[in-house]
Write a structure and sequence with these properties.
This protein is of the alpha/beta class. 39% of the residues are buried. An eight-stranded mixed beta sheet has the order 3-2-1-4-5-6-7-10. It has a two-stranded antiparallel sheet with strand order 8-9. The chain has helices spanning 18-24, 27-30, 43-51, 63-76, 93-97, 118-125, 160-183, 213-217; strands at 9-13, 33-38, 55-57, 81-85, 102-106, 129-136, 146-153, 187-190, 193-196, 206-207. The two termini are 27 Å apart. Helix 1 (18-24) runs parallel beside helix 3 and helix 1 (18-24) packs across helix 7.
Length: 231
Amino acid sequence: MTASATPRCAAVASTGGAVLNVALAQPSFARHLVGIVCDRECGAAGVARRHGVPLTMLVEPSAAAFCDRLLAWLRANDVQWVIAFYTRLFVGPLLSAYRDRILNLHPSLLPAFKGLRPFEDALARGVRFVGTTIHLVDEQMDEGKIVLQSVVPLDPHRDPADIRHVLFEHQCRSLLQAIRWIAAGRLVVEGPRVVVRGARYDDPVFSPALDDPEARALQVPPRPGNARPVP
């Protein structure tokens, strides 16, 4: 994938928008985001308004109709990359047109614990580690090529809400890093794998290791009370 100093990205969301809210406070991320598209009124729509990002509402009865309208909007706005916070599957021509250019954030170590409740499912299974994944969307749910993962030991004596907040912070950092890799042309798809040129693999938490100073230094506010951010 060729380098672009300012790749044009759009977020597609039907969730709370907490990761977007943190990322948009960073100018190096905000300058890449040309718009936020929502399929319903949701927290992410409020994030768009709060940060002055152009908001488009595409309300359709089916995922197919939504994806067809979304593809037309992406082409009309010359969008190169899509960041997904979307609770339905992408379908139809959109997947071919944006093959290996749709990033999805997922709060588990894929391919384990797919779907809408991955953290809760991991807790119920009694795993020893939880984590996060950024991957490239394909036709299957949470099956695409993995770009970046992070890991957290699951301490059974720690409040699960605190652990979930750590994962939220990891997602914010991972998104900033992934966009920086894209802007530098360092993300390369080789068959079923994603290779990050020049990446290091010496960090026990993030793989590949974060090398963007802003992503590494990002400070996410502590969770207020028992509130849980919704990505």
